[in-house]
Design goal:
Blueprint: H1 3-13, E1 34-38, E2 44-54, E3 57-60, H2 61-71, H3 84-101, H4 111-124, H5 136-145, H6 150-171, H7 179-196, H8 204-234, E4 237-239
Antiparallel strand pairs: 1-2, 2-3, 2-4
Helix pairs in contact: 1-3, 1-8, 2-3, 7-8
Length: about 250
């Protein structure tokens, strides 16, 4: 596996993996390599473009833009630049997982669990401090500045939680995360990041569950990576060139 491919999967697993269902699933009937509109003078205008087709599901250019925007909201995202190619790789992997998850559905995410995570998230995102995300108005402003409505972001986070749950059920048997591991990650990874941003970090006891989630994803990363390689080999992943008609 190339270094770029390994890093793409690694960052996808680290919760920067922002598990968001592709809007492409709702646009799967796109007939060509781009969606077009018509101006008043009758000229065609490209509104969107198909980037890849994954077992019949399309990934659009707008999906890539949304993925990169969503990445900016992640509180534990990697310090490296989240490139367009990385976003496309993540969307392809997610499409493959979504297709498998549809065959093995898990219980829906309760509203209370979602609300609890979002409340914690509003406290954890370093950039949220200047927006006063502890208030609904501040949170709304922050989310909208990143291209989402509050409801859109809420549903995307719910789907992220659902896919994390699916992966946990499938891969975490036999994996345990110790308190020492959580403390070590907090002290060696999180605290330096908050210090660099000159932001007061949350207390360990309030964030330990989120750290456990990140560490769990690291543990199952190798298993998931092998599984994704198998899904790609068994399925059909086709990258599209500009102007090429989608199959």
């Amino acid at each position: 596996m190339s270094v770029a491919r390994h890093n793409a999967v690694r960052w996808w697993m680290l919760g920067a993996a922002a598990f968001v269902v592709m809007t492409a699933q709702m646009q799967g009937q796109a007939a060509g390599a781009g969606q077009t509109g018509t101006t008043q003078n009758g000229a065609g205008v490209v509104l969107d473009r198909v980037i890849a087709v994954v077992n019949g599901d399309v990934i659009l250019e707008s999906d890539v833009d949304e993925e990169r925007g969503f990445e900016e909201i992640q509180p534990y995202r990697a310090a490296t630049i989240f490139s367009r190619d990385t976003a496309i790789d993540r969307l392809i992997d997610r499409a493959l997982i979504l297709q498998q998850a549809a065959l093995e559905p898990v219980d829906a995410v309760p509203d209370k669990d979602l609300d609890d995570q979002l409340l914690t998230l509003r406290k954890d995102i370093p950039a949220c401090k200047q927006f006063h995300c502890e208030t609904d108005a501040g949170w709304k402003k922050y989310v909208e500045d990143h291209g989402f409505t509050v409801e859109e972001f809420r549903e995307r986070w719910r789907k992220r939680m659902a896919l994390l749950k699916f992966i946990e059920v499938r891969f975490r048997n036999g994996i345990t995360i110790s308190d020492d591991q959580i403390k070590s990650y907090y002290e060696k990874t999180m605290l330096p990041e908050y210090a660099k941003r000159n932001v007061t970090p949350p207390k360990l006891e309030t964030i330990s569950n989120r750290i456990e989630e990140v560490l769990l994803q690291q543990q199952v990363g190798a298993l998931l990576e092998d599984w994704l390689k198998s899904l790609r080999a068994q399925g059909s992943v086709r990258m599209m060139t500009p102007g090429e008609a989608a199959p």
